[in-house]
Task: inverse folding
């Protein structure tokens, strides 16, 4: 499974979601209007990245169940 390119892409997408989440949470505690806007922007990006990660995971599961590699 670790040699499957789709698995590696899905895992990278999950890691990307975690990084975006950490950046968004990190800006929550800082004061200022700019930080609030930045935190909100990070959370929007997290939702998009999370959607992509879920689609990739579902695609990986679907292909594996169909007997691919």
Result:
């Amino acid at each position: 499974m670790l040699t499957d390119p789709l698995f590696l892409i899905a895992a990278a997408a999950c890691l990307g979601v975690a990084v975006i989440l950490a950046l968004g949470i990190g800006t929550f505690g800082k004061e200022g209007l700019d930080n609030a806007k930045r935190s909100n922007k990070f959370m929007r990006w997290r939702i998009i990245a999370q959607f992509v990660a879920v689609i990739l995971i579902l695609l990986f599961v679907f292909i594996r169940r169909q007997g691919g590699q």
Observations:
- The chain has one domain: 5-65.
